[in-house]
What we know:
Elements lengths: L3 E8 L5 H14 L3 E8 L10 H15 L5 E11 L2 H12 L6 E5 L7 H6 L2 E4 L7 H19 L7
Parallel strand pairs: 1-2, 1-4, 3-4, 3-5
Helix pairs in contact: 1-5, 3-5
Amino acid sequence: MKKIPLTLIFVGRASDSFIREGCRLYEERVRRYAELRLVSIPEERVPVKGRKEYLLRQEGRRIRENLPPGAFTVAMDEKGKVMTSEAFARSLDLWSRSGSREIAFILGGPYGLEDSLKEEADFPLSLSAMTLTHGLARMLLLEQVYRAFSLLRGEPYHK
């Protein structure tokens, strides 16, 4: 089966070694099924207290510069759609057949994503109603993408 092009754009970096290790593990596993491209956007520093909008706008600009043209975009957002792993697998399969050349997941930093970036996305997705660190959210997203591929292929990972 042909590997689908998949991009994960994320803001910031994981500071905890166990998160970095978990991300590497799932990145390797996802690469069995997809041409995975990882894009790390440096986290902006707030120049003046209360300038969150400025920070999100700057990160949003850099995210847009790295979005693959014509990609189906999935914005990770706490207010996005919550799905079961099975529903996510079906959606990933559907998105891969949507006619887009690539699927791009966008994961913001500690302040999330710029509102206009979320509105421009093809699909808003929530990993949890709970607040997660962006490093943990990145690892969880990678794990769920791997789980989705294993579900779609009937492999025993999902029990």
